[in-house]
Amino acid sequence: MPGSKTEDMKETRFTPFVSTLRSHLFPARQGLPSGLPRIVTAIAILFLAAAVPSGAKAAGADAGADARPNLIMIIADDMAWNDSTPYGHPHIQTPNLERLAAEGMRFDQAFLTCSSCSPSRCSIITGRYPHATGAAELHMPLPDQPTYPSLLKAAGYYTAQAGKWHLGNEVRDHFDRVEEMDKATNPSGCGQWVEVLQERPKDKPFFLWLASSDPHRSYEEGAIPTPHTAEDIVVPPFFPDTPEVRADLGLYYDEISRLDSFVGKVLDELDAQGVAENTFIVFLSDNGRPFPRCKTTIYDSGVKTPFIVRWPAGLKAGQSTGSLVSSIDIAPTFLELAGVTPPEGRLQGVSFLPILKDPQAETRDYIYAEHNWHDYQAHKRSVRSKDYLYIYDSLPFLNLSPPADAVRSPTYVTMMKLRDQGKLNINQMQCFLVPRPPKELYDVKADPYQFHNLAAEEEFSYMLNQMREIQSEWANKYQDPKPDLQTLTPDGFDRITGERFRQPKNKAKTSSQDKGKAKTE
């Protein structure tokens, strides 16, 4: 893959067969054929199970008969990368995430493939970029296809999910057990995590997909016993510092702390069962905080994620790394740990296991992200190195609306009032400005919030062209052509009020926002 430094997985005697099978079942194309029969995927997975090394067959993980590690992925819902104490926040209550990082490795340059709930999760579970999963837009159900849980299940792992689902019905049977949250009785989405861990079979290794609903909107007081105060809040510079904004961030912090408490319960249960040593845990978020200029953007505030790994049996505690890693790298990493060879050419990520052995190791040079429909019409693509971020926007005549629930938030309502009063600075006005530049380039070290667009500056023309070429190579390799704008899904909500349109989104072909509107709205 573009930007990958890790060699492809070594061939096995099954590789020619898998390659032939894949060529018939999963021909190269954008997305997946509609109506792919479930039985076809199941047959492919059964054959793949034969490729698991015989010595790694599950026969009693707790009894020591199976040396493969247990695997747990814990995913937050709308949590910014730096809103926890392991990442330097001075006040937020996250002692268990701090413990997780102290006992493992903190990744300081980890990124998602998009900043949109279900597309991000579909990308993670398949190990593919959003446009290549068949579920690139919000709420699109994931078509049946090989996922890393299905491959782990076929290879002898017990697989279970608990919490927020948001993946559609076609892949439910990729798990032995699915415990989808009931918001009324389980508002955090974490209430059944420990139960699922306790009730797993004890004669095989396990994989758990533990998905929180925290800190997704909407917010209510009382999420934790000791709520955060206004003095605890760190206001990002793209927000105005007002009591309303601090109060909104405080409720968001409270839900992060509630999530943190459940992370602690999982860690304690692993200790109680005596399986913590050989259990590999990854903690991350699905996208940035649900606030303006964060969630649904492909700036760092949208796609940079907390990413913490703990594995006492195979990872030295208390480490950090600045190596780049993407959320689609989880699938190949988990499968490598389990000794499972995926279908040839299926995964678009790369294992990050070399980084666990050496924090200075590099497994990729670039991060790729995209933004498609999430409440509003969109088509953006980006490539990021350790030094620069390049963004291409196919629809620069549209403003940078946050998702509809954030448009209705106290923070955004406050920002609109201050905009009308002329009290926002230029960096706080970014959500309202139109037209926007079709190309953006940022020096991410000198400009960590991506405020100063260098795309029009002559001294950066070489870098701009280089990053454009890298993004183009990625688009060609992964079959992501520029779209016909008339075919893009139009806005489903009003960009000013966040109210849902009555007209079905598939009936309209153009955005509600006119190209000729004034420069702010």
Question: Could you list some keywords that capture this structure?
Answer:
521 residues; alpha/beta; 13% strand; 12 strands; 13 helices; single chain; four-stranded antiparallel beta sheet; eight-stranded mixed beta sheet
Protein architecture, described:
This protein is of the alpha/beta class. 26% of the residues lie in helices and 13% in strands. It contains 13 helices and 12 strands. The strands form 2 sheets. An 8-stranded mixed sheet has the order 4-3-5-1-6-7-2-8, sandwiched between helices. It has a 4-stranded antiparallel sheet with strand order 9-10-11-12, covered by helices on one side. A hairpin with a 3-residue loop joins strand 10 and strand 11. The protein starts with 14 loop residues before the first helix and ends in a 44-residue tail after the last helix. Mean pLDDT is 88; it is low at 4-37, 39-64 and 504-521.
